[in-house]
Fold this sequence. Notes:
By secondary structure, the chain is α/β, with parallel strands linked by helices. It is built from twelve helices and 23 strands. The protein has helices at 195-203, 222-226, 236-246, 278-294, 313-318, 323-328, 334-346, 360-363, 366-379, 434-447, 480-487, 580-588, and strands at 6-7, 14-18, 31-42, 46-55, 65-69, 76-80, 83-87, 90-94, 107-115, 120-121, 124-127, 217-219, 250-255, 303-308, 351-356, 392-395, 414-415, 418-419, 455-459, 510-514, 517-521, 557-558, 561-565. The strands form six sheets. Strands 12-13-14-15-16-19-21-20 form an eight-stranded mixed β-sheet. It has a five-stranded antiparallel β-sheet with strand order 2-3-4-9-6, with no helix packed on it. Strand 20 (510-514) and strand 21 form a beta hairpin. Bound molecules: beta-D-glucopyranose. Beta-D-glucopyranose binds next to loops.
Amino acid sequence: MKPTVLKRPVQRALQCFGFCAALSLPALSYANYTCELTNVNPWNNGYQIDVQVTNNGSSAITGWEVTLEFPNGADRTGGWNANFTDSGNRVSASSLSWNGNLSPGSSAYFGIIGNHSGDFIEPICSGSDDVGPTPTPTPTPTPPVTPTPPISPTPNPTTPTPTPPGSTPTPPPPTGAPGVRVDNPFAGVQWYVDPIWSAKASAEPGGDAIAGYSTAVWMDRIGAIEGPSDGDGMGLRDHLNEAVAQGAGLFTFVVYDLPNRDCAALASNGELRISEGGFERYKNEYINEIAQILSDAAYETMRIAAVIEVDSLPNLVTNLNEPDCQEANGPGGYVDGIRYALQELGKIDNVYSYVDIAHSGWLGWSNNFSASVQLIGDAVSNLGNGINDIAGFVSNSANYTPVEEPYLSNPDLQVGGMQVKSADFYEFNPYFEELKFVTDWRNAMIARGLPSNIGMLIDTGRNGWGGSGRPSGVSSSTNINNYVNESRIDRRSHRGNWCNQAGGVGYRPQASPYAGIDAYVWVKPQGESDGISDPNFEIDPNDPAKQHDPMCNPNEPSRYDPSVTTGALDNAPHAGRWYPEAFQVLIENAYPPL
Ligand code: BGC
C-alpha cells in the first residue's frame, strides 16, 4: 500500500466553554463540551474520521455543534449521525434530533469520510466558534469574553514522514501502557486496515469508497497462522507487523477453526474433526500457536480484538438434529474449544475476546434466546482469568439483521387486527432490529453475572439494504404481510437465507455508536463468498472440507421455507474466496449510501 503520512496535532481535544454554537443553537448558552477524534483512518486517497462529543459540564445540553478544520482541505464525501455543512477547509457538524440531548458525562458520536490527495493531515476539532487562525470565507462570530480554550498548534505539513521506507517502524505511542485494559478497545485508536482485502476492494469498481476501512482478518485454518508457504500473502504475524507499521492501535481477527466447524451446513466445513483428534489439534496447533504470536512483546501496546468462532455455539441451541452438531455438543466440541480459546487468550492482557452470538433472526425467539443465554452464558463463565476472559459478544456475522428497521420498530403493533411480528416474514420472532437484540442480550448476560462493562459488537458489513428496493416509509396496507413486506428494509425472501445475499454495505465501522455497543465492525469482509453456488464444484485446495451447500444455490428452495428460493447470488466461489459480483451488489446497495 502506498504509505500515507498521518500527522497529529499535539492537542486533540478542545474544551468548548460557554459560547459554543451560541448563534445557531441558543439553548447552548452554558454548554461545556469536548470534541475528540476517536478514530483517524486515512488511506491512499480517502479517509474516515470518527468523532466523540462529550458533555463535560454539570448540566444537560440540548444540542451541540463542532467544527473540523482540515489544514489540507476536507473534501468530505459522506458522514453519519450529524448535520453537516462544508465550507472551505472546514466541516461543521451539529446534532440531530436524537443525539443532541446529552446529560453530564455522556457522549454523542458521529463520523465523516472524504477524499484527500497528497499527505493527509488530521483535522483539529473544536467548538464552532473556536476554530483556529486559518481565514475562510465563512464569517466566524467573535466569542464574548470567556476563558481562552487551549489552542492547537497548526500542524506543519512539511514535517518528514516518521518511518523511512525499509526501516523498522517505531511502535506508535497511542494505546496506553502494556497490561492496562480499557473498557472499550475500539474507542480512541486507529483501526488496522488489512492491505490484502483493501487492495482487492480498491481494484473493484466503486471499491475505493470502502477500501480504507478496517475488516477482520480470519484465521480460518491452521495454515492461515503461518500464511501461504510461497510467501505470497500474510500470516498472523505479518498482519500484526503491518498493523504496527500502520500505527494502528487496534487489530481485529477471527478465531475460526473449531472441530466439526459449520456443523449444520456444508459451505464452511473445516479441517478438524472431533472423531479424528480435532480437539487436541485445535489446542496445540491452532490456539496455542495464535496465543504465542499474540503474546509477543512487539504487540503489547496494541489492542487485539478476537472474534471467537462465528456460527458455532448457536448451532448447539437450534441444530442438535444434525449428527455433526450433536457430536459438537459433547466432549472436545464447541464448548470445550471455546473455553480453551478464551482461557488462553485471556492470559494476554491486550487481547479482548468477543464471542459470536449469530443474530436476532436466529436466536430472537424467546425459547432460543433463553436457551442461548444459558448455554453461551455457561460456556463463557468461570474461566479463571477474571475480567480478561471475555470483553463481550459479537453478532451479525453468521447471517445478519438490520441494525434498525426504521418503519417497523414495534413488533407488537396491530395492523388489520394482527401483530406485526405475526407476519410470515417475522414468524413471531419479536426481534426485527439487531440493536435491540444485542442490547437485551447484554443485559441478560450482566444479569447472569458477567461484568457490567461487557460490550457488544455488531457486524454491519452487509446489512445496509439500500438501493432502489429500499422502502422510504411505512406501508399503508392493512394486510399484515403486505404491510411488513412493503415496510421492511431487510429485502430477503426469508430471514434464514444466509448465503451470498443481495444485501448492502451497512454502517461504517465506528466505536461506541450506542451505550453498551463497543463498535460497529466489519467482521465478514465484503467480497468474500459465503459458499460455492455450483453443486458440481471442484475442491478448494486450501480447505478440502468445504462443500456446496444448497443454500448457496440460487435455484434451490430455502432450507427454512421451501415456498421461497435461497436468494443466493450465482457464480459464487468457495467460502472465503474473492467474489466480485457480490462485492458489486454490496456497494450498489450500501446504506448509508457510499
Ligand atoms: C469462510 C472462511 C473465510 C470467512 C471470511 C467463511 O465463510 O469459511 O474461509 O475466511 O468466511 O470470508
